[in-house]
Design a protein that fits this description.
YbeY; alpha/beta; 154 residues; EC 3.1.-.-
């Protein structure tokens, strides 16, 4: 018998509705809950390139739209965070990786949720390897493929 997954209060917003069919609410909840270690209150917002670029520029000083931004506000006792996913970037990356858009969204939801809990792949090579290994474990647990398989040549 597996342990119960943490509770999740979710607000799902589509500023760019083009991917609404690729990202049903139950899928978003499933991906995030599998990556959570504690109960959470989260907002997931799907944006267009303009909003994605503006947020990345304002909060990270990088003047381009990126795939996912994580705004974490608390990690204990409840994880509180916003995840912002940029629909055109997600679609472009999925095409380049030759994977379904829904699978790429799943990976980015897991990735962003781990960031919301303090995981960081930019602090050291060891941290990056640990985060990637955990992401892979979660993705496989969701019945999806290792998101890093192509980079590792598998």
């Amino acid at each position: 018998m597996s342990a119960a997954l943490p509770t999740l209060s979710l607000s799902l917003q589509f500023a760019d509705a083009r991917h609404r069919d690729q990202l049903p609410r139950h899928t978003v909840i499933r991906c995030i809950r599998h990556a959570l270690a504690a109960p959470a209150e989260m907002t997931v917002r799907i944006v267009d390139a303009e909003e994605g670029q503006a947020l990345n520029r304002e909060y990270r000083g990088k003047d381009y739209a990126t795939n996912v931004l994580t705004f974490d506000y608390a990690q204990e006792p409840v994880v509180m965070a916003d995840l912002v996913l940029c629909a055109p970037v997600v679609a472009k990356e999925a095409r380049e990786l030759r994977i379904p858009v829904a699978e790429h969204y799943a990976h980015l939801l897991v990735h962003g949720t781990l960031h919301a809990q303090g995981w960081d792949h930019e602090t050291s090579e060891e941290d990056a390897e640990a985060m990637e290994a955990y992401e892979t474990e979660i993705m496989l647990g969701l019945g999806l493929k290792d998101p890093y398989r192509k980079r590792r040549g598998a």
